[in-house]
Amino acid sequence: MLTRAEKIQFLFEISIKIGTSLDLKDMLKTCLSTLLRKLNCSAGAVFMKNNNEPIEFGYKQLFSIPRNINGIEAYTVFKKIVHKIDNESSFLEFENNLPLMHKIAPETFLHILELPNFGLLTLVKNGEYLEEDIILFLKPITKKIASSCFVCLQNQQIQEDILEKERLQAKLMESMQQLEKSNENIVQIVVAASGIRDPYTAAHQRRVSEIACEIARKMKLSEKQIHGIRLAGLVHDIGKISIPAEILSRSGKLIPLEYEYVKHHVKVSYDILKPIDFELPIAEIVYQHHEKIDGSGYPRKLKGDNILIEAKILTVADVVEAIMSHRPYRASLGLQIALDEIRKNRGILYDAAVVDACLEVAKEQVLDFFRNINFPNNLQK
After folding, report:
1. CB 252 within 8 Å of CB 238
2. Would residue 184 count as lying in a domain?
3. Is residue 183 a part of any domain in this protein?
4. How many angstroms separate the CA atoms of 180 and 99, rounded?
5. pLDDT (0 to 100) of residue 371
6. pLDDT band at 368 (very low <50, low <70, confident <90, very high)
7. Distance between CA atoms of 35 and 134, rounded to whole angstroms?
8. Read out DSSP for 86-155?
9. Which of 124, 288, 306, 361 could form a disulfide bond with 43, CB atoms 3.0-4.6 angstroms apart?
10. Do 84 and 155 fall into the same domain?
11. 96 and 212 share one domain
């Protein structure tokens, strides 16, 4: 029999043990070890109600110390007792008559205690059975253990949910990366195919992409946005495959009807790119790259904030590259003329922040085609 002081000390120790871990088996091992030591029991086990099991045995073993009791597996001993009781009355009656003591061998007693709403606690004691006052004393302890078991199970479920979420996120990221890689391959194929028909446009797109990316970096856009701008730049004129070669390469000014035909290339580009599932709106960026912030651009005459920042960057890069490079119908006008154009129309046709960034990129001569240029002292924003 435990003294009052021993019971208080017992309750204090078991309460601490119960709170040591949120892992179910660790917690049960700690609690069961303490119970066996304090009650001088030789073995014990914890069983959880398991609705997935046949009704004749509605529990599954979670943990036992030791694995064997007098050479007989603890689980098997307990199951035999439940079956025996079930044969004599009913399973429900068995649950309603807990705690229960059963002699399993000479001088060896198995005690079955309820863990409320959770399962059962079994304790094996040699030489004598646990007295009634001890069984009553254990009642609040079994309630605490049961409550802690529920907390541990909830924590386990939360951890499993977190791991599953992380697994799904990793899988989604992998799929997105594969999709993005596939989309980049599509872009490269499209660029290569268009380059065979129109080498000038392919080279122009590559240089516009490089300029636009440097402007975006200067403006401190995210890597994701810069990547999108790179792809958009590489295909922004892909719709020109619909334009007859004799119009694209003609020297001299186009007649109005021909110019309207050329302007239609942005819609063709959009229609080609729209079905491809890019991470960023590449098709829309390309669709807007001839819009001007004052609404004078085409094809939809968008204004100001209605134009994507990526498209505004592409617009400036496109203008600068087109003016400074040789065209099929005229020689290069030079970088200085290109920069004068965007400076003159800063805040009118072209976004001011984008123009400022482009001027800085040009002055720093980051790109090969910006080098060996003599910049005047008045080349300011």
Report:
1. no
2. no
3. no
4. 63
5. 55
6. low
7. 12
8. HHHS-HHHHHHT-SEEEEEETTEEEEEEEETTTEEEEEEEESSPPPHHHHHHHHHHHHHHHHHHHHHHHH
9. 124
10. yes
11. no
- Do 160 and 204 belong to one domain? no
**75 within some domain:** yes
What's the whole-number average pLDDT of the chain? Answer: 79
Amino acid of residue 176: M
91-96, long-range: CB < 8 A, 24+ apart: 91/55, 91/56, 91/58
pTM: 0.55
- Enumerate residues 6+ apart whose C-beta is below 8 A from 37: none
End of a domain among 164, 182, 217?
A: 164
Residues 333 and 206 in one domain: yes
3-class state of residue 15 by DSSP? helix
CA distance 162 to 155: 10
Phi-psi region of 117 (alpha: psi -120 to 50; beta: other; left: phi over 0): left
Across the strands, what pairs with 110?
102, 124
Reply yes or no on whether the pLDDT at 121 is more than 90.
no
Q: Say how many CA atoms lie within 13 Å of 300 toward its Cβ.
A: 14
Q: Any idea of the CA torsion for 28, 34, 37, 38, to the nearest 10 degrees? A: -130
Q: Which of 69, 164, 56 is nearest to 108 (CA)?
A: 69
Whichever domain contains 29, its CATH number is 3.30.450.40
d(CA 198, CA 247): 12
Kindly state whether residues 142 and 214 are assigned to the same domain: no
Identify whether 285 is part of a domain. Answer: yes
What percent of the chain stands above pLDDT 70? 80
| Strand partners of residue 73 | 68
* 55 pLDDT higher than 50: no
Amino acid at 335: L
Query: Which residues span the domain enclosing 85?
Result: 4-164
